[in-house]
TrEMBL record:
Coiled-coil regions, chain positions: none
Gene3D superfamilies in the cross-refs: Cyclophilin-like
Biased composition (Polar residues): 9-25
Taxonomic lineage from the root: Eukaryota, Metazoa, Ecdysozoa, Arthropoda, Chelicerata
Name of the featured protein: Peptidyl-prolyl cis-trans isomerase
Catalyzed chemical reaction(s): [protein]-peptidylproline (omega=180) = [protein]-peptidylproline (omega=0)
Family that this chain belongs to: Belongs to the cyclophilin-type PPIase family.
Residues of the PPIase cyclophilin-type domain: 77-235
InterPro entries in the record: Cyclophilin-like_dom_sf, Cyclophilin-type_PPIase_dom
Region Disordered: start-end pairs: 1-45
Single GO term (MF): peptidyl-prolyl cis-trans isomerase activity
Length: 236
């Protein structure tokens, strides 16, 4: 089960609508006028417009740049596509100083040294102002928990020392307690109700504007309005 807004035990496997969605949110998701006056048109930004609003704006501003917590922690990058067009890069710090096993799982999947990994993987679930979820390279819809680097098997929740205190945190989606694979999500808001359920293992150093751009493509159900994927990834 995927992370649920305002509820506890978010897990991976099946995408579900957040139970905290308001009636007005539901109206926007299904294309109905929230005032009940008739249908409304949902305007979907073109990839080129998203590129201008997201990547170029990020390049012009350094306000979203965060200093690494520890210089020895590994850093990775994720280049993001919308409908095949690049919109920008996320640079993340992995908290190997707190959760080394979880950090190494993500780092290796970014590097792709085992013959599989995050390159080409879709962001199969985007809920506006909540999360962007990816990491399932087995099925494009995220129906499985993914595949870890540890003999392909699920691994334990290392610890819950890091909390979901702010936007831009990387955390493991899971198929239940101690069933972590490769799926992960990035928070767009503070989400304390996910604490003690999901292992936080990193944070975005640069590229918060890219996340804001992705939020524009999210829906209450989580299905993105346009295909979003990891064009390229690696270790810095």
């Amino acid at each position: 089960m995927a992370p649920e807004r305002g509820q506890q035990p978010p897990e991976t496997s099946e995408t579900q609508s957040p139970s905290a969605a308001t009636s007005s949110d539901a109206g926007r998701a299904d294309g109905k006028d929230t005032a009940g006056t008739g249908p409304r048109v949902i305007r979907i930004p073109s990839p080129s417009r998203l590129f201008t609003r997201g990547y170029c704006r990020r390049e012009r501003s350094s306000q979203d740049v965060v200093t690494p917590i520890k210089a020895s922690n590994p850093r990775c990058f994720l280049d993001v596509d919308v409908s095949g067009e690049p919109i920008g890069r996320l640079v993340v710090e992995l908290r190997a100083d707190v959760v080394p096993k979880t950090a190494e799982n993500f780092r290796t999947l970014c590097a792709g040294t085992l013959g599989y990994g995050y390159q080409g993987c879709p962001f199969h679930r985007i809920v506006p102002n909540f999360i962007c979820q990816s990491g399932c390279f087995e099925t494009p819809t995220g129906k499985t928990g993914g595949c870890s680097i540890y003999e392909g098997r699920p691994f334990e929740g290392e610890n819950f020392a890091l909390l979901h205190l702010e936007p831009g945190l990387l955390s493991m989606a899971n198929a239940g307690p101690n069933k972590n694979g490769s799926q992960f999500f990035i928070t767009m808001v503070k989400a304390p109700y996910l604490d003690k359920r999901h292992v936080v293992f990193g944070r975005v150093l640069t590229g918060m504007q890219v996340l804001k751009t992705l939020s524009d493509l999210g829906t209450v159900s989580g299905t993105p309005l346009r295909p979003v994927s990891i064009r390229a990834c690696g270790v810095l």
